[in-house]
Please model this.
Amino acid sequence: MPDNTNSDVSPVPTRTSGPEKRTRVEREFTVAERSQAQLVLRRFLQHKLAVGSLIVLILIILLAFVGGWLWKYGVEDLTGDHSQPPSWEHPFGTDAIGHDSFAQVLRGTQISIGIAVLVALFATIVGTIWGAVAGFYRGWVDTVLMRVADLVLTLPLLAVAAVLGHNTQGTWWLIAVVIAGLYWAYVSRVARGVVLSLREKEFIEAAKALGATDARIIFRHLVPNALGSVIVNATVLVAIAILIETSLSFLGFGVRPPDTSLGLLVSQNQTAVSTRPWLFYFPGLFIILIALTINFIGDGLRDAFDPQQTKVRA
Amino acid sequence: MTPTDPTATTGDTVLEVEDLTVQFPTDEGLVQAVRGVSYELRRGEVLGIVGESGSGKSVTSLAVMGLLPKTARVSGSVRFNGRELLESGDKELSRVRGRGISMVFQDPMTSLNPVYTIGDQIAETLLVHNDITKQAARKQAVELLETVHIPNPEQRAKAYPHELSGGMRQRVVIAIAMANQPDVIIADEPTTALDVTVQAQILEALRTAQNETGAAMILITHDLGVIAGQADRVMVMYAGKPVEKGTADEVFYTPRMPYTLGLLGSLPRLDVKTDRLTPIAGAPPSVINMPPGCPFSPRCPLAEDICDQEEPSLEPGSNPEHLAACHFSYRVEGHAPADLFRQAADDPLPTGATEGEVRE
Amino acid sequence: MLAYSLRRLLISVPIFIASTFVVFLMAALSGNPLNRLLAISPPPPPQTIEAERVRLHLDQPIFERYWNWLTGLFRGDFGPSVESTMDIGNEVMSRYLVTLRLVLLAMLLALILAIIAGVVSAVKQYSGIDYTFTFIGFLFLAMPTFWFAILLKEAGISFNNAVGEQVLFTIGDSSVYVAGGAWDKVLDTAGHMVLPTISLALLSFAAWSRFQRAAMLEVLNSDYVRLARAKGLRRGQVMRKHALRTALIPLTTVTALDLGSIISGAVVTETVFQWQGAGTFLLEAIRKDDVYSIMAWLVISATVIIVLNLVADLLYGVLDPRIRYA
Model:
């Protein structure tokens, strides 16, 4: 604050008491310095639905990976109980030959989540680089790269994945590679958009004017600022990948027996929907629960990363 | 209330706003965008409302029009030709809007619907309020374009907004505002988004519109230079409240509130030799959960303990029509901006965040 | 506008041809089309196998095969199928007609529902109905098509039982034999279409209604809607004349972009409801390593997508004068 006690400088009527004597009321809008990560975390935690979803998702993951390992029945164990409805012994019931459905659903969840995360990882890496290069260099590089991405996007990807997935023979990580090999194009468009808009921002101009190198601009300015969009997209991609993988497995071109996935379980038990509904409903509900919670988390992250969101609530 | 014609004349005052408050509930708390604004607008006069963004000047005019989002909580009284608007329903208000009171917004680039021709958009406001044919409305639209000095009005009427420059589009918006001979035209920062070279022309077009229709005008701006020479009376707003009211001459030449003086000091002038402009240090206050006291005190060179405890009310000075809200208004009178704000200007500017501001 | 669309199209052609090469390679190398023949016991004479090898061009190097296929396309020749009696061109066309019936109707249904839900949600933002539509949107976004389709099938069977008559069909795209006249045939086809159309439509509905809500909200908060209100237009008039019209523009782009995923969805829906459509045609082809059938499906799908994209572009031009004059 200006020190106005120095009254010999001007003949202005100055305040009679100096600021040191007054207990000042903090009136201006002050922002305690917080790092970007802290701000994002704080805003995310305010999003109740997203936080609740995160808890549910973590529980599902723990159940699948830890619970599946501890559970008394294996996927291929024949329990001797045939077509049993859900009970304490078999929480999700058993099928006609005596497989424990709980063990199968947990195994299917493991595989489905594993593939989806791998897809998101691959697609994000490839797509981000693809889009960032297009956006950063623009010109004909941009035209060619983005026309390729656009073309991939317009194709019926699930069907193309079925053609390509025929080669994987059910190997789970190969399935992930096939799906990622088609879905990176989504990420590339987002990454390009972010880079293009950031290019025009004043702080990038300023960095250029100060003589910063391309590498410095990319790693100190573009990457941290694009991170939000990329993380949000990677999250949503996990949900999309779950649906694609389960559909692919349902059609018979994804995960194959003896291994299992949530989509394969639905496919194997579709005829049981009226006679032994537990076999059909539990894997389906797990797919919905996983995709739903991930979408809510993505929504929360989007709000947390985007400070320009509307704050007015009813 | 008697059902009267909304545009009927009832005395000299056409618009009377009394103790208007507007609040917005947000995640951070209650935003007190307008905290008790009163003014009256006389037939044919120009009232200038000045203030920084976030001072509540635009929210005030949107409240008058009944165009605030549904989440806004509005109280007080807005009487147009003696008729209370805040209690009126959408149907009654729609009859007043565009006919009794019309409005010109800040950004002409986004004020017009991109998918309709400008002729259609002018004709629309005529068709809503008058029982005329489409052909007649279109013909009148062309005439209105001519009045606001748009060249080739016949052809321009068939153009889409994106084919016109910003200045031309603002003329179209002015033509829409004057179409139904309103009693009041509210111009909300009509020149802010435009090139300096175009600003004078737009002010001129507004003048034309006012003269043609005989309407009173509220000219809202953050730029005292726009008000000068246009307004008959001026109201200065800070943090949702009027802090000084008076005739343009009084406010410009004998301000009684340090903030007004500060605004004047940050304005370049040709008639007085000054070495440098004197800025007001600091940022406008947050209007969420405001502490007691005068909101200007953190930036005020005259502030004392009482300023942090008690918010001053609008009090008349030697002239009963010249009101100011300052505990020490007598100390402001007769001083040049630089006298008061010099020390402030010599200090480095504090980096004030403005995140809590209400977007204008 | 048309020129712009055509130019974009022209750039896409070489890229599309390049991508057909990739798919051709993957499909051709993935399995041996002769496997089925070899698995027959007793094994057919070597001459038969050799003849089949020549008929399927397996004696040619892969690049030559691709080149012959590509040039054959322009003569309307899709190449030989593993099924020696099947003409790929005729088969894929008739199958695609069945699929298009499903896809177009589902898109129409999805668009209508999405516009209604999106607009209502935006207008009544943060109301109970908005939260309801939002929840439904999120739910369908998370729901796998195949699971929902099977549920619908169950619901259809229950419905028929309740009515005591087969109104909704859960298997096939039409009955093999329908007694009665043309009207009975139409009824029969409609009865087969109801459930698959709903199943396919709800998938796109979820995404589109969310999108339409956002677009509508943006327009509702726009300056020109505020000016329209300031002009004295009533809320309803502003909605109809200003908000809805402009908020529809971005939806055309999104619809066009989503065509691929709808055709994918049709593959799944046809599988569940056992339709003889293009989707099941593709899946059969993949299972039999029928390379030329796979390629035919890909080419026709791309053509359908390109044509519908052009339609969307033209529609965009009609809706948005900024594009029309650009």
Remarks:
- Chain B is about 35% helix and 20% strand.
- The interface with chain A takes residues 24-28, 69-71, 281-283, 285-286, 290-293, 295, 297-298, 301-305, 308, 328, 331, 335, 339-340, 342-344, 346-347, 350, 352-357 of chain B (CB under 8 Å).
